Amino acid sequence: MPNDPFSVASPRKIWIDHVPMSLRGLVLAVVFGYILEAIDFILPGQPLDAFGIRPRQLLGLIGIPLMPFLHGGFGHLISNTIPFFILGWIVLKAEKENFIVATTVIILLGGIGTWIIGSPGLHIGASGLIYGYFGYVMTRAILERKPLWILIGVIVGVFFGGMIFGVVPVFAPNQISWEGHLCGMLAGAWFGWNRTKEAKLLATNI
Asked: 53: which strand partners?
């Protein structure tokens, strides 16, 4: 009854309630990236970018977990958004509750590798993580040898196969961290290889 004093009105939905549960983590990560970029745009000198990875510098280690959320402008961030959503969603569906673990491993291993072999300067952007997702997907597609994974690998290869040139210094454009791409992809491939090995061991023991 409308006038019932004991009735409880349903809470008003916020925007995230309209996003499918399976995508909410990815959406929130992207929103966080855009908020940081907006803050960096407003502040003089874009000071947040200074917290990216600085290879072989002690203070540059702080950039390892922060690198995926920092970008050199909205153009850089926008170019990373769509591949992050698509490849991230594939990894999310494959890993389910282990998605956070997969993402964390890729960020940490890829970031440490970038810190070790990266060229002097500042390394920022989510592309290292995106390359990690790409490496994960393609590794599982090759090793699993299951129809679904093969299909996913073919589709990803068709639409994102050109990413492979981003790990080659000769083909990588100036100001692009090919080291971050390479280390991220290797980290993702390693995680995908381990997950494939675990899946095969589990299937053998059943």
From this structure: 123
Name the token pair of 1. Answer: 């009854």
Q: How many whole angstroms separate alpha carbon 142 and alpha carbon 131?
A: 16
Inter-residue contact 71 to 37 (CB < 8 Å): yes
Residue ranges in the chain modelled with pLDDT below 50: 1, 6-10
Domain hosting residue 93, numbered range:
15-205
Q: Looking at this protein, which amino acid is placed at residue 133?
A: Y
Question: Considering the entire predicted model, what is its pTM?
Answer: 0.89
Does some domain include residue 118?
Answer: yes
Return the structure tokens found at 38.
């907006």
- pLDDT, residue 172, reads 78
As a whole number of angstroms, the distance between CA 22 and CA 93 comes to 8
Give Cβ neighbours of residue 60 (< 8 Å, ≥ 6 apart).
Answer: 52, 53, 54, 115
Q: Residue 165 is part of a domain; what is its CATH number?
A: 1.20.1540.10
Exposed / middle / buried, residue 164 (Cβ in 10 Å: 0-12, 13-18, 19+): middle
Q: Is 123 within the bounds of a domain?
A: yes
